[in-house]
Design brief:
Strand content: 35-45%
Helix content: under 10%
Number of helices: 1
Number of strands: 20
Distance between the termini: 20 Å
Structural class: mainly beta
Radius of gyration: 23 Å
Number of domains: 2
Order of helices and strands: EEEHEEEEEEEEEEEEEEEEE
Shape: globular
Largest sheet: 6 strands, antiparallel
Length: 352
Amino acid sequence: MSQQILTEQYGHGNNGRSYRGEIEFEIRDRNKNTIGRILEPNLVKIGAKEILSHRIAYNKVWDPTAGSGVGAWVEHDIDLDEYALKYIIFGASFDEDGNPLSTADTRYYTPDTVNGGYVPVQLGAGAQYDGGLINPVPIAEPNRPLKRIERIYFESSYQPAGTPLLQEDVRALNNVIVLETTLTKEEYNGLGTTQSDYFTITEVALVGAREIDSVGSCECDPRDIFLTGVETGGPLQCSAEGTATISIAISETEVDMIKEGDQIKIVAMDSTAADDEILDQLNPYYLVVSKALGGRDITLDRVPVDVDNNAITGTIGILRDGFRIFSHRILKAPVQKSDEMEIIVRWRIILG
């Protein structure tokens, strides 16, 4: 079956940018008969440029002094596989008590005063919601697992093989990549055990991060799993002096846990990823723009401040953030999950 190639446009005229692709939900009953299909255009976040820029690089560099002085390829210190797309993360419409909501949830939808019904809120291409999801489904494996990508394959598109407009023959190109996972009948049926607990899936994100196996029933935000500190489990201790440069404490030995190009989260020193003690910051996430190997000074993209714009000083903790959303979508029509159906989720990205 041929697929319609969809395009989203941001900006106007020659200054606009378009991102082509789509997300598909194929809904099947317990006998694996397809009973519904939803296709929506995707939204590629501006953070996708980070993933793409890292994946373009090779995992080695040329060292002219290696190989007994004649030069050789040697490994560099960036884990490129960490930036590869591995997960599809889901958010759902439910309140603080776990009761399911639908399009009346104002976090996701607003009333359409012209045509009636509801329309999704507008997502930008930047770092809204601290770069995460609006209301992610907390993980509790096996019923609410961290969904890994289970299949990757290519679909073909076509372009002229010869000179355009002069030759009629075309050739196929494998420039449509498809990333797929399946929500089984037992998965994502809600936060309780009865049909009234079934929530509606309202948002989906495609995520690049490090490889993780089972995480158990942590009842946590998926992003928290990718926040890492020192080997003892706590954050890396640093000191802030009211500038964009923070310094790793002399007592810390894992000084190269943070590297140039990383994103970090500033928290209270006695905090953990789950505690979320963010020192009253509006956005606790920062980009490391400069950090020498073996050095203790870390230059951030801005001065750490609280919501009143007061510079944060004294002892702080930092966690490395490895959760990188490539694309994020609020569904126009929420998908109701139950133990009567499985849902195949396919994320297509058209590279051309």
